[in-house]
Structure of Glutamate-1-semialdehyde 2,1-aminomutase:
Amino acid sequence: MSGEEFELPVSRAVNERLHAAIPGGAHTYAKGDDQYPQDLAPVISHGRGAHVWDVDGNEYIEYGSGLRSVSLGHAHPRVLEAVRRELDRGSNFVRPSVMEAEAAERFLATVPTAEMVKFAKNGSDATTSAVRLARAVTGRTRVALCADHPFFSVDDWFIGTTPMSAGIPSGTTDLTVTFPYGDLTAVEALFDRYPGEIACLILEPATQTEPPPGYLAGLRDLAHRHGSVLVFDEMITGFRWSEAGAQGLYGVTPDLSTFGKALGNGFAVSALAGRRELMERGGLRHDGDRVFLLSTTHGAETHALAAAMAVQTTYVEEGVTARLHALGERLAAGVRDAAAAMGVADHVVVRGRASNLVFATLDARGRPSQEYRTLFLRRLLMGGVLAPSFVVSGALEEADVDRTVDVVGQACAVYRKALDAGDPTPWLGGRPVRPVFRRRA
């Protein structure tokens, strides 16, 4: 047994309040208390930089901030200054503000592979609009998405493919087909199976593994040869891979792409961008059928667009992407060394690009384990590290990374004990964490 006590009584009480008023106790399933060890789901009071404080008064070094959205750190001064300048000037009007032109021009200068852009509030609206636009311009109904990527949208065309498909007509789900990442032959076979039916291919251009040589360009060529639209979901890769996203790094331009998360550093803003020929179908300067592309009351709130502009300026002027990579490389090396020193290098595994690290917790047979994940998360929390992933923010200091590695080492020592005992149960403190996508509550 651990022999150590770590309790969050105030957080536990607030979690009960959250569940009483909010289905699931959170506004995003990935933030649910079922994703944390039992009774150890901290409720956040506030954050600054790479640190957050819970309502019990505990301070944590935080990773994966805002589900990867807060990449500059909480309450970043340049972002807050830009937002404050707009708050006294009004946030939403009956006609577009000049801020909309400025923000669009700034985005297109940052992502020069895109020719037009439209802003919204969340990633799902942007990806679903990309799908709708692809269907409209191709006259086709099927959507092909990458099965190896975990999330694209809250809308039916995607959620119907997950275990949480309750309430979604099977006819909608039948129009979505999937392909594996990195396999052009499989995509070719999909086009052969559904000739003239696939409106678009949608995928994250990269995740935990780099795209195989020629893969992204091959996808683009396949899509165009078969009359389909290529869509890159750059919600995560945008800014973390480069200021211009993965398309800027790998030199492959999709027809459409979607951005969000890091774009606002926690403020609600997302973007659909792409070729003028396609994007204008959602506008007024064409003679075809109108496409209801994006029309959101709050999509152009001035403070959010100001935040996005400040984020882009900060990334470019301060070299944030390079900093994220350097911090991630330091963290990955430290975690791997700590795991090796405790004899669990084959069980606590760091994966992904340095700016977007995740970790796997494997059992004695090398299988992914929610029980060992629970043990690991519990020990991190006890050491003052809040880390559902190891995704870094630019606000981290090297001392934060080194402290994290020390705590990981302590967690790995307990991990080794559990492996030697053949059962992690005594170190869990209750039920194990659970996957987000599951059929039953």
Observations:
- The chain has 16 helices and 13 strands.
